[in-house]
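User: Can you help me understand a structure? I only have the sequence.
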Amino acid sequence: MTALFALATSLLWGLADFGGGLLTRRTPALTVVVVSQAIAGAVLGVIVAATGGWGEAGPRLWFAVGAGLVGPVALLAFYKALAQGPMGVVSPLATLSVAVPVGVGLLLGERPGPVQVAGIAVAVGGVVLAGGPQLRGAAVQRQTILLTLVAALGFGTVFALIAEASTTLTGLFLALFVQRVVNVAVGGAALFVSVRRGAPALPEGGFPWASLPALAFVGLADVAANGTYSIAAQHGPVTVAAVLASLYPVVTALAARGFLRERLRAVQATGAGLALAGTLLLAAG
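Assistant: Let's start by predicting it. Here is the structure, written out as tokens:
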């Protein structure tokens, strides 16, 4: 069950990143984050009301609040790093986020077996290569590296926090709703400050109503990924769940290949193969 839900997390996050990347080509990134998360929050609010999730309120929700505070900061740092530096450097560095939940799992006493250790090493190496690491070219600014590491730390922290936010399915719905409310509040505040400084909140043609279904998909896929990761982490070793969930760059690269006809570099194809091999080792272990 851990492997199944963690791989579902990678699929959902990979597709959400692909959709978000396409949307930010036409709409400011902050607006994409706020609108997509608001749509997801509205849907979750209905689910919470229908399932009686309000009765699950308790101290664990502070983990969801923490995830909601950290998430938008990580996203903004990631988008800014992508705008400043080559994706071939930023994308592989961002996968270092897996170190946070894996570290938490080890501190809590998890000890993966030899086969799983080998699977973790192979899968992480595959993910880095699948990002298409740039081995030649101009030097990358220190600020870009710093922003990418901030994003990685933030993503990893969200991994760790959301896994602790609930112990029941209805509680998970409530935790994800709280996380989205905080996401929108933080993102909305950042968007307000950005507009006050002169940055546009919308593209020249006004609100992109035609993109509303895509915005909804990005928000709902992101929240679903948080949910499947939480379930994966609760039903098996966090070290395994985190590594399998970090395979989303492979999904993004394959989506770009399928929908945009982008050609995979040899190093990316090799990385995808290694990631698959690592997944099989983790499942076998």
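Now, to help you interpret it: Residues 211 and 276 are 33 Å apart (CA to CA). The first helix runs from residue 2 to 23. Let me know which part you'd like to focus on.
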